[in-house]
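Troubleshooting: if your tokenizer reports a length mismatch, compare your output against this known-good record of 117 residues.
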Amino acid sequence: MEESFSFLMQNLSLILLIALASHCFILHIRNRKRELFEVNGNKVLINQTAKLQFILAHKKSIPIESVVKIEIHGNRLSLFQNSNNAIDVWVQPKHLDSEIGKAKNVFSHAVFSDYGS
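Known-good structure output:
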């Protein structure tokens, strides 16, 4: 018993690293087919996907009509709502054009402005 506990404590950092890598791999596999903007009735769900540069803390669901303006700053989409709240979505540069097109389709009523890099 003491030997196994000693082995566990000596290799704890390696065990934690393997667990973290496994968790990230599973999340990547699970989220790779998911769309960034998923329409569900009159709401849109902003999902965690492999297309994001940074991971959102949680999925966000917002009413489609609440987004009145979308600003594009480099690889960031800022979704401004009529309540003056903004949601920033950082997209990997290689997926930026396709996600802007999808955002224009989903939020067709919103005003788009491109501020470049």
